[in-house]
Amino acid sequence: MAPKYVHHYLDASARGDPIRIVFYAAGVEFEEKLYTFACMPKIKADEKTFPLGQLPTLEIDGESHVQSHAILRYLENEFNLYGMCNKQKLAIDEILYTLQNIEDQFFTTYFITPKDQREESFRKIHGDAVRAYKMFEEILQKNNYGKDYLVGNK
């Protein structure tokens, strides 16, 4: 019998999206429970479902798991979507963690950096993003322009 998956996340686009995409790409059914920011105190109090008091959380047959990258990696492995060899897995991780670094820089700048310093910080992020996308283009070229895939052929 197939496991029952319940994906808990904010009713927003961010770190929960890649998890959704993996389910859709694999054609695997899952239940999705979306929450508003106003629900966060309730989530933080429910240690059984939300062990760290944060989202995303993935329940697998009633057992809760946390950390977006750990969940993502588990699902990719479970559904055979995480590369066919270690070199492909390395390329996937390079892309994932490069994007994560850019996202972290953006959120730090937007939410923490003083307003008078944001323009300079956003300029740096732009430069980092351009450099990253050049690297992604090289990965794609090495993969014969992907033919639907950035890494590998499935």
Automatic annotation (TrEMBL):
Cross-referenced Pfam families: GST_N
GO biological process: glutathione metabolic process
InterPro entries: Glutathione-S-Trfase_C-like (IPR010987), Glutathione-S-Trfase_C_sf (IPR036282), Glutathione_S-Trfase (IPR040079), Glutathione_S-Trfase_N (IPR004045), GST_superfamily (IPR050213), Thioredoxin-like_sf (IPR036249)
A GO term for molecular function: glutathione transferase activity
GST C-terminal domain ranges (all copies): 85-154
Domain GST N-terminal positions: 3-83
Name assigned to this protein: Glutathione S-transferase
